[in-house]
């Protein structure tokens, strides 16, 4: 008896696990903003890949607010307590598989089919991760404070009830503009007791502090009609010219220290686009196990299965009831 993929089964699948993990992350448009340090927009946590557990706790130390003492004033009794906020991110198993049915041994096409199976699973995993990140970024059920929300051009559009605020966005007056982007940035750096930290972007030997706006194509369409945006973005900013981030069709330009990227998966509800201005630690992706690629033979080599599985969790970071790294920007999104 000869199994369909006997000559390549086993070791090859094990070697491919790392390749699949790298490939599907590399296809994700958010990949360039992912990293293990706290300056990344999407912070990757891998502690659970080396230790047991079904959750990881991300902590934030609040800044000291005391005035200290001067002169001969005793420091004893005037100390300040350290305050920590934390968020528990649960992880769970995620699996998917494809199956190839039919006699393949005589034609010896198993290797090509294995490549097709792998590519299909890589595409699926990339789409899954992208949608989970977007779902986390656009979650309005937690961290909902006015200092992190902008419904159109006017602060008066805000309401504690999301649906009510959404209905206040006007199709004409609340299109995405440079003014709205600047207002959202001011919310990030000025509103509330805890600022949104910018994302540290490296370009050669230089490091720039920037915020990143992920916007729906309809919002981008309106922004591109803003004369102020046109005037600034005739050419790519020189400081970012060699960066991988500014190549390709997703990058649309910069305004007021905010890099603008088009993201067609951003949700639209009632002709209103949900865009997000992001800084550091907007979302956390916790891995309990990285991608494992597997192959299975059944029915005496007649059926061949290919699968990937991993353990992970994706959540928006919210500390003390406030979104940590996101400002939600709602703009008109009337279809063409």
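-> sequence recovered:
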């Amino acid at each position: 008896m000869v199994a369909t993929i006997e000559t390549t089964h086993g070791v090859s699948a094990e070697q491919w696990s790392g390749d699949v993990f790298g490939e599907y992350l590399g296809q994700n448009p958010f990949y360039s903003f992912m990293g293990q340090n706290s300056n990344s927009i999407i912070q990757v946590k891998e502690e659970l890949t080396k230790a047991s557990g079904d959750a990881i706790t991300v902590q934030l130390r609040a800044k000291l607010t005391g005035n200290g003492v001067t002169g001969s004033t005793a420091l004893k009794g005037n100390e300040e307590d350290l305050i920590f906020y934390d968020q528990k991110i649960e992880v769970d198993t995620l699996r998917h598989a494809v199956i190839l049915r039919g006699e393949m041994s005589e034609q010896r096409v198993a290797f090509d089919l294995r490549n097709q199976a792998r590519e299909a699973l890589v595409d699926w995993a990339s789409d899954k991760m992208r949608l989970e990140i977007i779902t986390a970024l656009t979650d309005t059920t937690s961290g909902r404070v006015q200092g992190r929300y902008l419904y159109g051009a006017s602060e008066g559009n805000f309401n504690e009830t999301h649906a009510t605020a959404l209905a206040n966005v006007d199709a004409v007056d609340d299109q995405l503009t440079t003014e709205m982007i600047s207002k959202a940035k001011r919310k990030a750096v000025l509103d509330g007791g805890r600022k949104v930290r910018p994302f540290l972007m490296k370009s050669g030997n230089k490091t720039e502090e920037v915020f990143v706006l992920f916007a729906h194509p309809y919002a981008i369409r309106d922004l591109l009609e803003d004369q102020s945006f046109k005037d600034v973005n005739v050419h790519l900013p020189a400081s970012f010219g060699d960066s991988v981030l500014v190549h390709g069709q997703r990058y649309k330009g910069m305004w007021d220290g905010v890099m603008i990227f088009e993201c067609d998966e951003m949700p639209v509800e009632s002709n209103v686009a949900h865009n997000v201005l992001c800084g550091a630690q907007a979302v956390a992706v916790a891995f309990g196990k990285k991608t494992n690629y597997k192959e299975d033979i059944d029915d005496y080599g007649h059926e061949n299965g290919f699968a990937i599985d991993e353990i992970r969790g994706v959540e928006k970071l919210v500390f003390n009831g406030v979104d940590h790294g996101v400002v939600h920007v709602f703009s008109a999104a009337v279809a063409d």
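Residues 11-36+44-60+84-137+286-315 form a domain with the Major capsid protein gp5 fold fold (CATH 3.30.2400).
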